[in-house]
Write a structure and sequence with these properties.
The protein is 39% helix and 37% strand. The chain is an alpha+beta fold. It has one domain. Keywords: Membrane, Transmembrane, Transmembrane helix.
Length: 116
């Protein structure tokens, strides 16, 4: 009786380990690095959030769209700054930021113009 419980516990532990590994791996991508750089230097983020002190990716704050054989990530990160906090949602296509939006605590969605 206890052997099946042990197997399920091992399976749950492995699933948890995979979730943590995927979360860590997403933070190591060049797309995530580009997003961090955009958030740090974007004037709209500076106006709304202030000087950025923290950018955090929640455990389930990312996804991957698979189209035409390529994998395009999308992120939803929490940003904390000197004036407050917000959430930035960004979608990538072919390794470049295709769309980015700052969501304020009041629920306002402010599009971030991406410098090219």
């Amino acid at each position: 009786m206890l052997s099946w419980i042990r197997k399920w516990l091992y399976a749950l532990a492995m699933l948890g380990g995979l979730i943590i590994a995927a979360w860590w791996a997403m933070q190591q991508t060049s797309s995530y690095t580009r997003l961090e750089a955009l958030i740090q230097r974007h004037p709209v983020v500076a106006d709304e959030v202030g000087q950025v002190s923290s950018i955090r990716l929640p455990f389930f704050g990312y996804g991957v769209d698979v189209t035409d054989g390529r994998m395009d990530p999308n992120f939803r990160v929490r940003v904390v700054g000197s004036k407050g906090e917000g959430v930035v949602r960004a979608d990538f296509v072919d390794g470049a930021i295709a769309d980015a939006i700052l969501i304020t605590p009041g629920g306002h969605a402010i599009p971030l113009v991406i410098p090219r």
